[in-house]
């Protein structure tokens, strides 16, 4: 039975999870950030740490461009008339499906 | 029987606050706190009654069904009633230090919003459900505008127009049902409609579904959700993303399982809309530069998991348990994320990730709160999100592995944007002073963290509750028998 997810499984998962956390903690606890390092070495490039800003959208730019998420954004324009049209269209399609299969 | 008084308590407090607030405005908080606490105590007392007695029915003014308005509570709506009263108390306490002006109006509207929510959750009458739906909707339009800036006002007006438009769908749907059956009692409609083959039945259901779907923000009815999340105060966004959405989902499911259960295609529609919500919600969240918009889209994705679970339930029974469990978890996760981020947002008066970067780096407690919320949202082990998502994955494997792949993909995306938000808010370097937290906020966030972790470790308790609740949902015959007895 595939849904037979027991307390025993959870215990193993918890144990693995805590072991990984403990190893990671132990491996990193002696390293202290001095605040003096201003550049980062990234695959042959020296990048100024100020340029590495996760708040900027560039973090997932490749994913966003590959998945063409801008097209999805265009549908969320904030324009009320477009939203009214989209909501009505969605309701109409669902009603048509319900009626045709009745 | 007792839980029906919660509606009266909320409604009475909603109207009493403006009167007593005339004497001293600060009294409004005390009144709201008192009402919310009493409501929660009543709920806790009422839970064993519902569990041991089955469906509890109350006929208003002594008029029996189908002649009068009926209120009915079983294990399915009791779960949502409990979630609503818990949410209400937490939001009232959280608001204390954050609402300094217009507190009379704020707490009065908050109480009316929860009157609507509790009314929908209790009622066994279709038109009564519409009335409570409107109370909930109108209060939420006003609360969205409470941020008192141009964006909030614009968004509230859009929400009002679109909300009124979609609630007219609901009204027309109810009118069609009344035309076909000549009654408004849900249990009585179920008996009459079973023998009817009128084409108006699926049309009515489609219209009712569209009305509630807009309020719950299931894709493709989700368009305003992120705008609302960004424009409102964080605690209001938290209510709309959690309990308001779940109440609308409850209404759809209650009506589907009692009245329209012969429309089997609806299960496929739920699966498709669930997947659509998961994909759109998570991908759009990945793109956002505003934390509240991100959380708004994230809540759409989590709602998608719930809807997917209910759709899959027709094929794999355990999916109902998983969906109800995920609904419970989503309410706590959304509250935790919105309320922890809300502390920083309200302090710095911005929700832009760039402007908030590093503002939480000196507050370890907030950092832990947001981190637990973020990993629970993504479904990482030892959190409640993992337990319910895991069950959904395994259930979907029995139907179609593609569904499982999409679910896992959206969870990975959820982890990506949640950690991005966490790193930006709590790990960036800035010279911002430490945000001092008031004791009520610390207590609320501690409770939410504990629930998210406890339900992840002792998930069997959550599953047992969900199973009892799912059995009530599926036991149509008993509901009808009890209400019409």
List the SSEs and their pairings.
The complex is a heterodimer of chains A (102) and B (485).
Chain A: H1 7-28, E1 39-42, E2 45-48, H2 61-66, H3 69-74, H4 80-100
Antiparallel strand pairs in A: 1-2
Chain B: H1 5-21, H2 27-53, E1 56-59, E2 70-73, H3 75-95, H4 103-122, H5 126-144, H6 150-181, H7 186-193, H8 200-216, H9 225-231, H10 234-258, H11 265-287, H12 291-312, H13 318-348, H14 353-356, H15 364-378, H16 384-399, H17 401-427, H18 439-457, H19 459-474, H20 476-484
Helix pairs in contact in B: 1-2, 1-4, 2-3, 2-4, 3-4, 3-10, 3-13, 3-19, 4-5, 5-6, 5-10, 6-8, 6-9, 7-20, 8-10, 9-10, 9-12, 10-12, 10-13, 11-12, 11-17, 12-13, 12-16, 12-17, 13-15, 13-16, 13-18, 13-19, 15-17, 15-18, 16-17, 16-18, 18-19
- Please estimate the helix content of chain B: over 70%
Order of helices and strands of chain B: HHEEHHHHHHHHHHHHHHHHHH
In DSSP terms (H or I, runs of 4 or more residues), the helix count of chain B works out at 20
Strand order in the largest sheet of chain A: 1-2
Structure summary, number of beta strands of chain A? 2
Shape by Cα distribution of chain A: flat
Distance between the termini of chain B: 16 Å
- Rg of chain A (C-alpha, Å): 25 Å
Helix/strand structural class of chain B: mainly alpha
Mean pLDDT across all residues of chain A, rounded? 74
**Would you identify the regions of chain A where 5 or more consecutive residues have pLDDT less than 50?**
none
> What is the approximate shape of chain B?
globular
Unreliable stretches of chain B: none
Number of helices of chain A: 4
SSE arrangement of chain A, N to C: HEEHHH
Write out the strand line-up for the largest beta sheet of chain B, numbering strands in chain order. Answer: 1-2
């Amino acid at each position: 039975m595939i849904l037979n997810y027991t307390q025993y499984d959870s215990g193993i998962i918890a144990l693995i999870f805590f072991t990984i956390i403990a190893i990671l903690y132990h491996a990193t606890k002696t390293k202290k950030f001095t605040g003096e390092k201003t550049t980062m070495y990234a695959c042959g490039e020296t990048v100024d740490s100020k340029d590495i800003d996760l708040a900027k959208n560039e973090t997932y730019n490749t994913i966003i461009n590959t998945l063409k998420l801008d097209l999805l954004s265009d549908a969320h324009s904030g324009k009320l008339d477009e939203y009214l049209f989209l909501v009505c269209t969605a309701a109409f399609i669902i009603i048509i499906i319900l009626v045709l299969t009745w | 029987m007792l839980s029906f008084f919660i509606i009266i308590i909320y409604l009475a407090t909603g109207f009493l606050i403006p009167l007593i607030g005339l004497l001293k405005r600060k009294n409004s908080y005390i009144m709201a706190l008192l009402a919310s606490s009493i409501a929660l105590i009543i709920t806790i007392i009422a839970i064993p009654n519902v569990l041991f007695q089955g469906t509890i029915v109350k006929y208003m003014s002594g008029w029996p069904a189908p002649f009068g308005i009926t209120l009915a509570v079983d294990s399915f709506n009791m779960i949502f009633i409990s979630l609503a009263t818990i949410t209400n108390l937490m939001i009232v306490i959280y608001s204390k230090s954050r609402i300094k002006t217009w507190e009379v109006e704020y707490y009065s509207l908050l109480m009316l919003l929860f009157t609507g929510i509790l009314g929908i959750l209790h009622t066994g009458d279709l038109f009564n459900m519409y009335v409570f739906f409107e109370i909930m909707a109108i209060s939420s339009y006003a609360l969205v505008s409470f941020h008192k800036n141009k964006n909030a006002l614009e968004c509230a007006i859009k929400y009002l127009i679109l909300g009124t438009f979609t609630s007219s769908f609901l009204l027309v749907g109810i009118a069609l049902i009344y035309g076909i059956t000549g009654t408004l009692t849900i249990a009585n409609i179920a008996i009459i409609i079973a023998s009817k083959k009128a084409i108006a039945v699926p049309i009515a259901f489609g219209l009712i579904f569209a009305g509630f779907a807009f309020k719950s923000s299931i894709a493709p009815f989700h368009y305003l959700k992120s705008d609302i999340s960004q424009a409102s105060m964080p605690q209001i966004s938290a209510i709309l993303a959690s309990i308001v959405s779940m109440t609308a989902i409850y209404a759809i499911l209650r009506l589907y399982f009692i009245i329209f259960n012969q429309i089997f295609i609806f299960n496929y529609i739920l699966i498709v809309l669930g997947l659509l919500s998961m994909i759109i919600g998570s991908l759009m969240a990945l793109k956002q530069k505003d934390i509240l918009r991100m959380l708004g889209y994230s809540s759409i994705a989590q709602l998608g998991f719930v809807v997917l679970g209910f759709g899959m339930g027709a094929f794999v029974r355990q999916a109902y348990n998983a969906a109800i469990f995920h609904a419970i978890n989503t309410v706590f996760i959304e509250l935790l994320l919105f309320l922890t981020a809300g502390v920083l947002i309200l302090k710095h008066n911005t929700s832009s990730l760039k402007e908030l970067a590093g503002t939480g780096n000196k507050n370890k407690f907030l950092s832990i709160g947001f981190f637990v919320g973020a990993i629970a949202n993504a479904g990482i082990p030892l959190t409640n999100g993992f337990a319910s998502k895991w069950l959904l994955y395994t259930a979907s494997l029995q139907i179609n592995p593609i569904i499982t792949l999409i679910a896992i993909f959206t969870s990975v995306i959820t982890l990506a944007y949640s950690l991005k938000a966490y790193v930006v808010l709590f790990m960036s370097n800035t010279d911002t002073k430490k945000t001092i937290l008031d004791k009520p906020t610390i207590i609320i966030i501690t409770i939410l963290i504990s629930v998210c972790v406890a339900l992840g470790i002792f998930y069997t308790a959550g599953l047992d509750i969900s199973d009892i609740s799912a059995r009530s949902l599926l036991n149509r015959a008993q509901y009808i028998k009890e209400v019409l007895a």
